[in-house]
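User: Here's a protein and a ligand (beta-D-galactofuranose). What would the complex look like?
Assistant: Let me lay out the input and then the predicted complex.
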Amino acid sequence: MKNGKKVLVVLVALMVLFSAAAMAAPKTWTVGFSQIGTESEWRTADTQSVTSAIGDDPTLVLIYSDAQQKQENQIKAIRTFIARKVNVILFTALVETGYGPVLQEAAKAKIPVIMIDRDVQKADRALRLTIMGSDFVKEGEKAGTWLADYLKKQGMDDGSKPINIVELQGTTGSAPAIDRKTGFANIMKQHANWQITRSQTGNFTTSEGKAVMEAFLKADKTIQVLYAHNDGMALGAIQAIKEAGLKPGKDIIVIGVDSVKGAFQAIVDGEMNCTVECNPLLGPQAVQAINDLRAGKKLPAKIDTIEGVFDATNAAAALPTRQY
Ligand code: GZL
């Protein structure tokens, strides 16, 4: 074969190879991620997991927004993502309501929305593709079930004497606050002598959890149990209980949700009794969902995370391997 022809054959072969490679390699996608803030250790771990998982994928470009716990900032960020024509929006809803119009705008712009952690209200769920995260109702039920078992083992509940419970709620209107309250109430239905005598939001922060518990303790000297919708508020309440001259974990049973390291340490120190796990490490699942979307796959309506319950029987063994 003449040299000229050989060169032509090689060139054509190279062009075919490159075009095949180009076809196979996923197109670079831009991801708009609207996170709600930095209110808790849980949130910090969640943000770190999602942003590093996206950062580790060379075919994904991240535009990140921290709403600083303000819904209007989230709505502005999503509008910016739409204006910048991102390929997909990742979004944690600060509260359940108020996102319908901006989700309509994303749908109109044909930009898919994947919810992580907290979902929007039922009426708006047709506007987003899926929700990945925990079952907050189950978390509340796990907290109530653990308490029933513990009270029984301690011989503290004969089924008739009142059990005085106070509750530190999460951010008012948020999915975890609504659902963790519902889940715990589901278990309370089996215990007519249990009473939630005081219930107030501590907004998922340690400082507000401490302040509200201080007020509870001033008003009520007969508190037996604290159910906090996250460990951050429980840890703040533990400070308030100690400053009131009481022993957290003994004089008052302390239950939290999240399973952050601080809760494990408090359990090991005997100052907390139980934490229900809520896994923030959603990054790998988020990137998997984006890649499935890019490959044209249909996403499931809900992508669940696996979680446990920790107390004095298993916290010390688990603490060394905890990632958040
Ligand atoms: C739950 C998450 C909650 C955590 C809190 O998935 O939305 O928000 O339980 C965090 O610690 O502030």
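Summary: The longest helix spans residues 3-24.
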